[in-house]
Amino acid sequence: MSDRGRRRRALLPSAGALLVVLLAGCGSDSGSAGPAEQATDPSPSSSTSTSTSTSTSPSGSGLPECDAVWVAGQDLPRGYAGCVQDGRVEDPERRRCEFGQTIVEHAGRFYAVPGNVVNETESLAQSPEYRRALRSCQG
Predict the structure, then answer these.
(1) Which residues neighbour 103 within 8 Å (Cβ) at sequence distance 6 or greater?
(2) Angle between helix 3-25 and 128-138 (nearest 10)
(3) pLDDT at residue 47 above 50?
(4) What backbone torsions phi and psi does residue 114 show, to the nearest 5 degrees?
(5) What is the largest CA-CA distance in the chain?
């Protein structure tokens, strides 16, 4: 294996850790961070994502309501498969990362790596924090 290949392999875990740190550190752009946004657990393995507010939708899909899943400061479930908004199933909008993770977006203002904290901004298109996380993710 070449030196370049070894360096690249060595950087992949570091890039993954950087993304988790970036996403965990990003909060709401509203300027007022509540206790849920301030208290983040840096250990990804200790996050069990047992959401107490996930209500199942009446659509029969078995998916939770989007308002129950996409809450700033709360963890996005690891197995997130979508949600229901206004009676319609919303499929996950995923951005594939260079090192195997994904960033999931919702409603143009929420983003998270499954199993990690949900971040909310006024607009993903306008958010410098989101752009940094995406650059870190995609290399």
Answers:
(1) 23, 94, 95, 97, 111, 112, 113, 133, 134, 137
(2) 150
(3) no
(4) -50, 135
(5) 55
> Strand, helix or coil at 87?
coil
Which residue has 């206790």 as its token pair?
A: 35
CB 106 within 8 A of CB 70: yes
The Cα 69–Cα 6 span in angstroms is 39
The answer to whether residues 34 and 73 touch, using CB atoms and an 8 Å cutoff, is yes
pTM across the whole model: 0.61
**How confident is the model over 73-81, as a mean pLDDT?**
97
Q: Rounded to an integer, what distance in angstroms lies between the CA atom of residue 81 and that of residue 101? A: 15
Confidence of residue 99 (pLDDT cuts 50, 70, 90): confident
Categorize the per-residue pLDDT at 48 as very low, low, confident or very high, splitting at 50, 70 and 90. Answer: very low
